[in-house]
Design goal:
The protein is α/β, with parallel strands linked by helices. Among the domains are: 199 residues, no CATH class; 110 residues, PAS domain (Beta-Lactamase, 2-Layer Sandwich), CATH 3.30.450.20; 157 residues, Reverse transcriptase/Diguanylate cyclase domain (Alpha-Beta Plaits, 2-Layer Sandwich), CATH 3.30.70.270; 56 residues, no CATH class. The protein is built from 28 helices and 21 strands. The strands form four sheets. Strands 13-14-16-17-18-19-20-21 form an eight-stranded mixed beta barrel, surrounded by five helices. Strand 1 and strand 2 form a beta hairpin. Helix 3 packs antiparallel against helix 4, helix 4 runs parallel beside helix 6 and helix 14 runs antiparallel to helix 15. The longest helix is centred in the N-terminal third of the chain and has 53 residues. Pfam families: EAL, GGDEF. InterPro entries: Biofilm_reg_signaling (IPR052155), EAL_dom (IPR001633), EAL_sf (IPR035919), GGDEF_dom (IPR000160), Nucleotide_cyclase (IPR029787), PAS (IPR000014), PAS-like_dom_sf (IPR035965), Rev_trsase/Diguanyl_cyclase (IPR043128). Keywords: Membrane, Transmembrane, Transmembrane helix. It comes from Pelomonas baiyunensis. This is Bifunctional diguanylate cyclase/phosphodiesterase.
């Protein structure tokens, strides 16, 4: 009597999901269908591949029937793939019995297809093809049965139709041996069906056990942990409509109500009316999603409190579709106030009180997220390092505070001023209708920051350069906005400082070109693409050669000839100036040995000179090449005096002690003072070509050059006029008693071999710099001025 009941119980549990049942059954059905959906693409592909083998096995003998079968199989496969495609990426939470029935129908269609294959063509083909068909049908039977095991009716329909088709095939074949095969087929189908039914029962039982365990642990795991960790927490429980079911004195005290009044409270509405940031809580409540450590600010101002809420929905056990909530409230006011203080410090510059870089970028990111337009003004103080070095860092800090105050005084509605670091500031302009246009604001900033700053007895002057970048849809992210503003700022500083530049795409192209040059530099150094050219310097009276200046040239195989004005700043930016300078020194010293009696001057970057081991490296090169120190001249620019005057002075004296001579290049265009000239051990002043070009046209330029020459004579320095290109310029240079001249009138820069020919008085041939072959040393012919000049030479 017990055995039939046991079978009935197993059958009930196997097919229990085909009754509507409660919400738990719906969720289990959904999980079974989701699992089958993940296998659908693989199963459909397997059917297509097997269908191809059927076509190969049956061949032309299949005729119209094969075509119809293939069409039916393709339609069933396509139907499965379309349904899978529409549901991809979506996880079904609940499923009705109708979903299981649809799965059963689709499985029956597939079973019909493969039963048809066996019944229709197994008797008609040869022995080899029979083996192939039997293998495929048996394989499809087993694989499909277990893939459909979570849907037992679908698995049974699929297996049953294939078994029926197989039996029809064996009967039609009419061979005695196939009777035994038919018995085996029935046994195989029964075993597969029973196994798949057992898998279905086991999978359903496991899922029910999991849901039961989750219900049992749902309240305990949340409330006990939170309550034990926070002694001041308050527990709460509501019904499905949000009315409080669990009412405690602690909760009443937190809500500011009496125990009796708690009966009237609907918790979601209470939070929504007292907190401006209750949106996430209300959304989670409406969707039935648990939440943890969700912070709410209750009230405003100094009396506001911060609560942390954690809760989970109560899973109903009576078959209803909705339940209440259980959760805990923790008062985290003190911790939140401390966190707010830390956040304020993290978003505020400690020195000036302005917004810091992080705060400014967050504001820009928020504006971009909302689709708002605006401008970013990047502001950099000009020559601030001089103030720090000459007056001390405390004075420099006070200057930064004054600058911050002046910038803050200019802001309009929607403006945010911040300090990015060092002497870099920024203004983010997001106002809808500002009184001043961005360019007008930039001009006003430059004007206000150029006003003197009085600190104690000191009257200090700083200037500013401004780069402007538009914040709109064309900017992908905040980083790009900052880069655009920095590129515009860099262009403003490069073009003379104390001015503003608006970012344009051309600046971006220039930046990309700059990056390309920087990338190619290291490769060029490694492959020997750099070569020194030499430009003679001659006595202004006799025109006899006294020395040469070494000028680095770079011919890149893809980029072509790259100007020193381009690759030297790039080398300084990417840290390769030391390697490039060392190469120039090495090649120049080797050239000295082939130029008897002539000195060679090499340009030295301020970064190179300020390197701690620079003096030792120069001494090493001199010893290595056996060159007399007096034949090596080093040329530095006036910008050296703005970097670290004391360290620079120390290194220049060390070079002089080695026996080298030092020249001050491009004198008159920078920031030199008589005090610097007296302190620094210069042997030579090189008068910038901009003065030389004006000698024959402007009397004031002649007066300036004359003054420089006389001052140099008083200080015991020689003078060199750069860029002499005409006989008239040479005549004026002679009249004011300049010592040496250098320029195209004498000779253009040339490789060492052509320089030796020039010195020997041999004609110079070839396209190099379009050198006139008639020009020989000590016999100069006037040349027309070139269309371009070589600047920033190393």
């Amino acid at each position: 009597m017990t055995q039939p009941e046991g079978i009935r119980e197993r059958l009930r549990r196997t097919f229990e999901l085909y009754a509507e049942g409660d919400g738990e059954s719906a969720r289990i059905r959904a999980e079974h269908l989701n699992q089958l959906a993940r296998l659908t693409p693989l199963l459909m592909v397997a059917n297509v591949v097997a269908g191809g083998f059927v076509w190969l096995a049956v061949g032309p003998a299949g005729g119209v029937a094969l075509a119809v079968w293939l069409a039916l199989l393709g339609s069933v496969v396509l139907l499965g793939l379309v349904r899978w495609w529409h549901g991809r990426g979506r996880t079904v939470r609940k499923a009705s019995v109708r979903g299981l029935h649809r799965g059963t129908l689709h499985a029956a269609l597939l079973g019909l297809c493969w039963g048809w294959v066996a019944a229709q063509w197994f008797p008609a083909v040869h022995e080899a093809e029979r083996v192939l068909l039997a293998t495929m049908v048996a394989g499809m039977l087993g694989a499909g049965a277990f893939a459909l095991a979570m849907l037992p009716w679908a698995s049974l329909a699929y297996v049953g139709l294939i078994v029926v088709g197989g039996l029809v095939a064996l009967i039609r074949a009419a061979e005695p041996l196939y009777l035994a095969v038919a018995v085996m087929l029935l046994a195989y189908g029964a075993v597969v069906s029973l196994a798949s039914m057992a898998l279905a029962r086991q999978a359903t039982a496991l899922r029910r056990a999991r849901y039961s365990q989750a219900r049992q642990q749902q309240v305990v795991s949340l409330l006990l942990r939170d309550f034990e960790e926070n002694s001041s927490d308050a527990l709460w429980e509501t019904d499905a409509e949000g009315r409080l079911m669990h009412r405690s004195p602690r909760l009443a005290a937190m809500l500011g109500l009496s125990i009796d009044k708690l009966r009237e409270v609907r918790l979601p509405q209470w939070f929504g009316s007292r907190s401006h940031d209750a949106g996430p809580l209300l959304a989670a409540w409406a969707l039935g999603r648990p939440f943890r450590d969700l912070k709410l600010q209750i009230g405003r101002g100094e009396s506001s409190r911060w609560w942390s809420l954690s809760a989970k929905p109560i899973t109903p056990t009576d078959g209803s579709t909705t339940g209440g909530w259980r959760g805990v409230i923790a008062d985290v006011t003190e911790a939140q106030r401390f966190e707010n203080q830390l956040r304020l410090q993290a978003e505020q510059d400690a020195l000036t009180g302005l917004a810091n870089r992080r705060s400014l970028m967050n504001a820009a990111q928020a504006a971009m997220s909302l689709g708002r337009a605006g401008w970013l003004l990047s502001i950099d103080l000009d020559h601030f390092k001089v103030i720090n070095d000459s007056s001390g860092h405390s004075t420099g800090d006070e200057v930064l505070r004054v600058v911050a105050g002046r910038l803050q005084a200019l802001v309009e509605e929607g403006d945010l001023v911040g300090r990015l670091g060092g002497d870099e500031f920024a203004m983010l302009r997001l106002g809808d209708s500002p009184r001043r246009a961005p360019q007008a604001m930039a001009a006003l900033i430059i004007d206000r920051l150029s006003e003197p700053i009085v600190i104690g007895v000191k009257r200090l002057h700083v200037g500013a350069s401004v780069g402007l970048a538009r914040l709109d849809g064309s900017v992908a992210n905040v980083e790009d906005l900052m880069v655009n503003a920095d590129l515009a700022l860099y262009d403003a500083k490069r073009s003379g400082r104390a001015r503003s530049v608006v970012y344009a795409n051309a600046l971006g192209a220039a930046s990309r070109r700059m990056h390309t040059v920087e990338q190619a530099l290291r490769e060029g150094l490694g492959q020997g693409q750099f070569e020194l050219h030499f430009q003679p310097k001659v006595d202004a009276r006799t025109l006899l050669p006294l020395g040469v200046e070494a000028l680095m040239r770079w011919e890149h195989p893809q980029l072509g000839s790259i100007s020193p004005g381009e690759f030297i700043p790039a080398a300084e930016r990417c840290g390769l100036i030391h390697e490039l300078g060392a190469l120039a020194l090495q090649q120049a010293c080797l050239a000295v040995r082939q130029l008897p009696g002539l000195s060679v001057a090499v340009n030295v970057s301020p970064l190179q000179l300020m390197e701690p081991g620079f003096v030792a490296s120069v001494e090493h090169v001199l010893v290595q090449t056996s060159v007399a120190p007096s034949l090596l001249h080093l040329e530095v620019t006036e910008s050296l005096m703005l970097e670290d005057a004391q360290s620079a002075l120390k290194r220049l004296h060390a070079l002089r002690e080695l026996g080298l001579q030092v020249a001050l290049d491009d004198f008159g265009t920078g920031f030199s003072s008589l005090a610097y000239l007296r302190a620094f051990p210069f042997h030579t002043l090189k008068i910038d070509r901009s003065f030389v070009r004006s000698l024959t046209e402007h009397a004031d330029a002649r007066a300036i050059v004359n003054t420089i020459v006389q001052m140099a004579g008083v200080l015991g320095m020689r003078t060199v006029a750069e860029g002499v290109e005409t006989d008239r310029e040479l005549a004026v240079i002679r009249a004011i008693r300049c010592d040496e001249v250098q320029g195209y009138l004498v000779a253009r820069p040339m490789p060492l071999g052509k320089l030796q020919d020039w010195l020997a008085g041999r004609p110079i041939t070839g396209p190099q710099d379009d050198v006139d072959s008639r020009i020989m040393p000590w016999r100069l012919t006037q040349m027309s001025p070139p269309t371009t000049m070589f600047g920033n030479d190393l």
